[in-house]
Amino acid sequence: MILTPEQTDFVKAIRSFSRATCGTLAQRDALTDGGRQADSPSLLATLSGLGWLGVSLPEVYGGGGGSFVDECLFLEETSRAQLPIDAYSTGLTTVQTYLRFGSERQKRAAVGTVVAGGVEAVALSEPEAGSDLAAARLRACGDGGGWVLDGQKTWTTAAHLAEHLLVLARTGSGGTKHEGLTLLMVPAASEGLDIRPIDTMDSHTVNDLFFTGVRVPADAVVGEVGKGWEQLRRGLSVERLIIAAMSVGRAQRALDDVITFTRQREQFGRPVATFQAVRHRIADLATEIAFCRSFVYDVAARVDAGQPGGLAVEGSMAKLKCTQVAKWATLEAMQLMGGYGYAREFGVEQQVRRALAPPIYGGTNEIQREIIGRALTR
Ligand SMILES: Cc1cc2nc3c(=O)[nH]c(=O)nc-3n(C[C@H](O)[C@H](O)[C@H](O)COP(=O)(O)OP(=O)(O)OC[C@H]3O[C@@H](n4cnc5c(N)ncnc54)[C@H](O)[C@@H]3O)c2cc1C
């Protein structure tokens, strides 16, 4: 893709900012409590001050009014630079549903939060409803014009930092499992809501949520009562593209690191990069990443051209391929850097840990294959 002069300047500015603020492990550790946190609220606030958060979100709600291609450039570059702002992508994903179905108040609140460097989270998964999300059991009962929520959500990214949670709740019974589901905007500070971190192989990002008699007003409903499932499905292609763009950045970072390292590292009296077996693997990485990047920006351009609803298959393909390539690229980087790839100091081991989750979240890659395969064979 050929960037416009403005896009080229934008990318240069992100790279130079990232080098200055997060170029070293010591800088990233200082922002993340030694790598224990996935996100740095202070860095998000700085990025907000620069006007870089929400570049693709509508100006009328406080966003930058730019294109989705611009957004993907930001996601790719910040992921490549290992900026600890994963929660931004969660917020960006979540606001898509508010923008499509929410009330004016909800749109203003959610977009305003994300643009200001705050977090909006989405709570869909439950202990017994993962890939089969429509089996969600958390109940919201009508009560005096409002709703009362009881039940559990799990794996909610960045809930501990969020202003609001977009919660999928069962409000009706009868019919198919896809009916009777409603989306609600729930303040994260609500009484009766307990947010607990889940211990994982990576830094703190995901949480269990326990709802005990959590009350929200009637206008917490996002869109229509009973239409939650349908509404959710319509926003998923953009969510998958967000994950794909970040994966391209992560894969590119692995390639950057491996090139730098293997050109410097000498064994048998010559740089490791001069061994053909190593060079060919670098060539494979570069080729796969180039193809992923082209596809992501092609789909992003089509989103900008107004086709998001028709891009379900392409969104799934982008998510499937780019997350696979990022996982493979980080593991290749570790192998090609030998023992140094395994050491924390060089940053690759964290990239490996980070690259293992995207094939699981946002709909597992097995489910993406189902979506693509079903569309092609029906
Ligand atoms: C780091 C991380 C962040 C997350 N963030 C969020 C979040 O912010 N909000 C949220 O709501 N959820 C979030 N999730 C949850 C995530 O979306 C689920 O983990 C995912 O949908 C899979 O559900 P599950 O873990 O219950 O696995 P299961 O659905 O139990 O799947 C287990 C295995 O079976 C396979 N499988 C299941 N059904 C099929 C099928 N029909 N065909 C073929 N294979 C199948 C799966 O692909 C998987 O390999 C997050 C998860 C992680 C790990």
Secondary structure: helix percent: 40-55%
What's the overall average pLDDT, rounded? 96
What portion of the residues fall into strands of 2 or more residues?
Answer: 15-25%
pLDDT below 50 for ≥5 consecutive residues: which ranges? Answer: none
Describe this entry's structure for a reader:
It is a single chain. Strands 1-4-5-8 form a 4-stranded mixed β-sheet. A 4-stranded antiparallel β-sheet has the order 2-3-7-6, with no helix packed on it. Strands 9-10 form a two-stranded antiparallel sheet. With 378 residues, the chain is an alpha+beta fold. It has helices spanning 5-22, 25-31, 41-49, 68-80, 86-101, 104-115, 228-264, 276-304, 312-336, 339-342, 348-356, 365-377; strands spanning 119-123, 139-143, 146-157, 162-170, 181-187, 193-197, 206-216, 221-222, 266-267, 270-271. The chain has 12 helices and 10 strands. The structure holds flavin-adenine dinucleotide. Flavin-adenine dinucleotide (FAD) is lined by residues 90, 122-125, 130-131, 155-157, 206, 357, 360-361, 363-364, 366-367, 370.
